[in-house]
Amino acid sequence: MRIRTTKKAKWYAAALGLTTAGAFVLSAGGASGHGYTDLPISRQKLCQNGTVTNCGNIQWEPQSVEGPKGFPGAGPADGQICSANHTEFGQLNSPTKPDGGAWPTTKVTGGQSYTFRWQFTASHATTDFKYYLTKQGWNANHALTRADLNTTPFLTVPYNNARPPSTLSHSGTIPTGRTGHHVILAVWTIADTANAFYSCADVTF
């Protein structure tokens, strides 16, 4: 009887352990993250679709670049803006892509309307979407900082605590006065948490 009881107890403990571990995996995989831009295509999407390789964990979860909201007054630290302070997504901060060379760029024209598009894997009550652009003459040879950006967004889309659909597009005018390589930083601010999602896209004027 003791042996049976011991075996039963061990079996129960093992089953409980597996159940707990499974629940942890599910919660860890589904608790973080939830959106990225693919127009213009973001660095995390370029990693996810295989255009850029050696990206590390971000290739599996481009939607997970979530960090403190309140940019530019708060939010991710300078040099970690594109990864939203996630060290495991640090490849996104590099001025060059992890497999070597420059990040691929999307061609844009100043003064013209452009469609910006987000893809969502989970919906959240949303404050707004904001878009920032680097200044002419910014330092493209280091990780992005606030000093590189015009910290007044060139486009703000209020969302009034609504939840976006799985795909959301909106249009805005690209600022003028830029030439060459620049970065557009898109920020999706969540209404009912302390966080926002960040997405860096490289563009060429």
Blueprint of the fold:
Blueprint: H1 2-31, E1 35-39, H2 43-48, E2 66-68, E3 106-107, E4 113-120, E5 126-134, E6 149-158, E7 167-173, E8 181-190, E9 195-204
Parallel strand pairs: 3-9
Antiparallel strand pairs: 1-4, 2-9, 4-7, 5-6, 5-8, 8-9
Q: Which segments are poorly predicted (pLDDT under 50) over 5 or more consecutive residues?
A: 1-32
Level-1 CATH class name of the largest domain:
Mainly Beta
Radius of gyration: 21 Å
Kindly, what is the distance between the CA atoms of the first and last residues, rounded to a whole number of angstroms? 79 Å
What class, by secondary structure content?
alpha+beta
Q: What do the pLDDT scores average to?
A: 88
Global shape: globular
Count of helical regions: 2
Main β-sheet, in a few words? 6 strands, mixed
Q: Helix coverage percent of residues? A: 10-25%
- Annotation, overall tally of beta strands: 9
Corresponding CATH architecture of the largest domain: Distorted Sandwich
How many separate structural domains? 2
Q: Hey, roughly how much beta strand do the residues contain?
A: 25-35%
Briefly characterize the structure.
By secondary structure, this protein is of the alpha+beta class. The chain has helices spanning 2-31, 43-48, and strands at 35-39, 66-68, 106-107, 113-120, 126-134, 149-158, 167-173, 181-190, 195-204.
